[in-house]
Amino acid sequence: MVSQLQTQTQPEVIYPDSDGKPMANNTKQFRQIVALKENLEWLYADEPNVFIAGDLFWYPIEGSNTVVNAPDVMVVFGRPKGDRLSYKQWEEGDIAPQVVFEILSPSNSQKEMDRKLLFYDRHGVEEYYIYNPDNNQLLGWLRNEYGLDAIESMVNWVSPRLGIRFELSEDSLQFYRPDGTRFFSDFEIRQLLEQREQQLEQKEQQLEQKEQELEQERQRTKEMEDLLKQYRDRFGELPNS
């Protein structure tokens, strides 16, 4: 009986969806995160059960709100798209994100990144990538039977899960889709979004014009019906031709 009372009075665990910190500490980091996330969204746009998120709190253990991390970008196969305040793994079929990306900023300490690596290793991430845009350094880990193991060479590395290729030049990192086309830059993404907005506006204008034309046609039809009614009221039915 005592244990039942203790269970009933146990306080509800609150899982915060924000720590009050910004998504990125500088514009360079932010551009990299947004471009990577948006390109992955487009890559899997037709896959309803691939969930992609940026800077979303991931809680792997029910009842523990202190065991949490917010990957810069994470990809989860086997979970539906949709908005979430946080990713509570026990509510998601106990499926952990399979692929995680971190884009470093000067404020990220080695101790912090060591903790992240331990977290991702402990909670089942299959592929983990770190990119530092300031020194153009790319690191990666791939899960084997013992856990996450460092990838010896990232030269033209292809993600086993995503099929995307990493190409590290002298001063930048570029991703290529499985079909060989490169990921869009943040500037190109903005251009594409602007083009899509313009296309939508044009379609809306075309629809409005068609609606106006239909309304004019309905008005003309009504006028003809009114004239026909007036004629019948005055002279009777029209003679057969």
UniProtKB/TrEMBL annotation:
What's the superkingdom here?
Bacteria
Domain Putative restriction endonuclease intervals: 40-167
Q: Where is this region: Disordered?
A: 1-21, 201-222
Give the compositionally biased regions (Polar residues).
1-11
InterPro entries the UniProt entry points to: Nuclease_put_TT1808, Restrct_endonuc-II-like, Uma2
What is the name listed in the Swiss-Prot or TrEMBL entry for this protein? Uma2 family endonuclease
For this UniProt record, give its keywords in alphabetical order, as a comma-separated list: Endonuclease, Hydrolase, Nuclease
Recorded GO molecular functions are:
endonuclease activity
Pfam families, sorted: Uma2
Q: SUPFAM superfamilies attached here?
A: Restriction endonuclease-like
